[in-house]
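A brief tutorial aside. Many learners find it easier to grasp structure tokens once they have seen a single protein encoded end to end. The record that follows does exactly this for t-SNARE coiled-coil homology domain-containing protein. Read the sequence first, then the structure, and try to relate runs of similar tokens to stretches of the chain.
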Amino acid sequence: MAASSSRGGSFYGGAAPYRSKDGLSTRPAASSDEIQLRIDPMHADFDDEISGLRSQVKQLRNVAQEIGSEAKFQKDFLDQLQMTVIKAQAGVKNNIRKLNKSIIKNGGNHIVHVVLFALLCFTVVYLWSKVSRR
């Protein structure tokens, strides 16, 4: 943005050209294509704001690091959980295979025994209910 010192006008209540309400104003420069800014010390709370921004950035960085470490912990935990589930699935498959081999080897007599036991229990409960009604 080019400006010359001969440019007149009243900005912000009669202040110099290109004057801002935050204390920045232009100075005439050596060439007409340059603008130099002067900061009024009265409005120079920039150091405090910069310090505040630095502390906020520091806090955000700490939060980001905590989030990163928590994400790593959660990932490790999920990996361990996944390995445990895989081992459990392998154990169940192995036990089912052994059980099937045992059933084939010993025969299916245990099913007959379970059915006979259930019929016996049903008969006992039926007879007990008939006797208790009298």
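Self-check: The chain has two helices and two strands. If you spotted this yourself, you are ready for the next section.
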